[in-house]
TrEMBL record:
It comes from Thermobacillus xylanilyticus. The lineage of its organism: Bacteria, Bacillati, Bacillota, Bacilli, Bacillales. Transmembrane segments: none annotated. Its EC number is 1.17.1.4. Gene3D superfamilies: 3.10.20.30, [2Fe-2S]-binding domain. This is Xanthine dehydrogenase, iron-sulfur subunit pucE. GO terms for molecular function: xanthine dehydrogenase activity. Pfam families: Fer2, Fer2_2. Residues 15-91 form the 2Fe-2S ferredoxin-type domain.
Length: 172
């Protein structure tokens, strides 16, 4: 069980929602309509998932729900009951490890200000888990829910291509 201080007051009578977060079981007492984004950032103190547009258009809050990318700003707490949530903090699976996509973003300069980077990495990791050798069109489609206002996407596309190559080398 994740042991975190809860800085947000718990509402009396709120139900408990149990789910797996980054490989560890958690239980959160909160109203069912509370956004997953708020639970992650304010209750569980995982601030890698960013607050962006708050209407599901920018992808800054992207997390994996049972391995599929979803916007945490549009996902209510009741929707994650009994499911697996993976944030940018858990994408690599180890405390000091880097996921191949994270390493590739560093090597290819797939970021500028970095605000969109966690969401981009989460979406790219989901793509590569499903399609280890994606085409450029598949990469563009997989990242279509993520907006970057700084890079022009060149470094991001190179990073996803490199991450795919890193995955192929590891498999081969």
């Amino acid at each position: 069980m994740i042991d975190r201080t809860n800085p947000v007051p718990v509402q009396t009578g709120s139900p408990v929602f149990a789910f797996t977060l980054n490989g560890e079981p958690v239980a959160v007492t909160a109203p069912p309509s509370r956004r997953l984004l708020d639970v992650l950032r304010h209750d569980l103190l995982l601030t890698g998932t960013k607050i962006g547009c708050e209407i599901g258009r920018c992808g800054a809050c992207m997390v994996l729900l049972d391995g599929k990318p979803v916007n945490a700003c549009l996902t209510m707490l009741y929707q994650v009951e009994g499911r697996r949530v993976t944030t940018i903090e858990g994408i690599a699976g180890g405390k000091d490890a880097l996921h191949g996509v994270q390493r590739a973003f560093l090597e290819e300069g797939g970021y500028q200000c970095g605000y969109c980077t966690p969401g981009m990495i989460v979406s790219a990791a989901a793509l590569l888990a499903e399609r280890p050798d994606p085409t450029d069109e598949e990469i563009i489609e997989a990242l279509s829910g993520n907006l970057c206002r700084c890079t022009g996407y060149g470094g991001i596309l190179r990073a996803v291509r490199r991450a795919a190559a890193i995955g192929r080398e590891a498999d081969g």
